[in-house]
Sequence to fold (317 residues):
Amino acid sequence: MTVFLDFEKPIAELEEKIEELRHLDNSGKVNIVKEITTLQKKVDKLLAQTYSKLTPWQKVKVARHPERPQFFNYIETLFEDFTILAGDRCFGEDQATVGGLARFRGKPVMVIGQQKGHDTETRIRHNFGMSRPEGYRKARRLMDLADRFHLPLITFIDTNGAWPGIDAEERGQAEAIARSTEACLRIQVPMISLIIGEGGSGGAIAIGAANTVLMMEHAVYSVISPEGCASILWRSADMAPEAAEAQRITAQDLYRLGVIDQIIAEPIGGAQRHPETAIRSAGDAIEQALITLSAHDGRKLVQMRRDKFLNMGKKGL
Fold:
């Protein structure tokens, strides 16, 4: 069953009518096909109007949509021979961050991504996409492996932040995130990051300090969730919509600010409506970025990556 967001209520009502018509007996009194066609045109028009003027808070809801394609969906569609490499060789295995070797359109690559899960069982297994320190230490291990074997690195970001539990803090969460970020800036291979849903806090930047940062049209990327920001500034999570507006977390805002390099268009109604189309578009953008970056040697790639992030801090000074 399709999950509709609160601002999609008029669309949901029209689609419910279409579904009812499809189950009616075509007795000839009503031209059901014609009626369905008319209603579908209204749905398409309403979808286009709604998604062309989403507020930042509405984009947060779209980015969190339970049917939005996640890391494993991208793996299944874009990659072949994906082989998971588990463990951080220090403490244990973290299933919020998943990584391994694969082939992307015929080329061997290293892939790392954050998986949230689609139902209760998988969300618990993957800890809702919130990694513990061993997840970031595993990511760093795989980055070093990619560097050693000269494999391009592709990362998929989808987390509302690193796991904030006491156990994570006891095992050095901040240090693990910092080391993973440092590894991103050090490796001498092309690195591409794609924000597919939420890009939250250090949990995102730990695998996102890339040469090229791509972002899906309705994804969000921020230093803290709107609810967290609102709780700090206004002492109330109810102010999250205002916080989302002030934070400039949308792909369009971040592209203007130079934080990301490219926005990947999503089908009308969001990636959750036509997942394969959205994923294929992302794959084309990744392929083009790889072609561009492959023209540079390792030292140049490192310098470009560092300059990219240093220049962000200089803007507006």
